[in-house]
């Protein structure tokens, strides 16, 4: 909403009459001939802002994994949750892949998640 306020303030500074500014005023026609309004721009920005926020959270998670988890924990967490472009696996699949017990996978995962929760607070 702050971005929309800034844009409206800009238009008000340009125009002498603030009543002429409306978020439903057409800015330009799109390729199909329908008018593009400020509301269209704002709704697109919300999606972009959410994507940026999601990317920042993912980067923060990856940094935490690298900083607080040992090599085995990193391996199990990345396999379990599909990090680094891997397909998420079940504990049973990870146990078979690493030739360890499922309960050992569970203990390592639990310990790693606890470390990550603490690091991300």
Automatic annotation (TrEMBL):
Signal peptide: none annotated. One of its GO terms (biological process) is DNA-templated transcription initiation. Residues 89-110 form the HTH cro/C1-type domain. GO terms for molecular function: DNA-binding transcription factor activity. Pfam families: Sigma70_r4. Belongs to the sigma-70 factor family. This is Sigma-70 family RNA polymerase sigma factor.
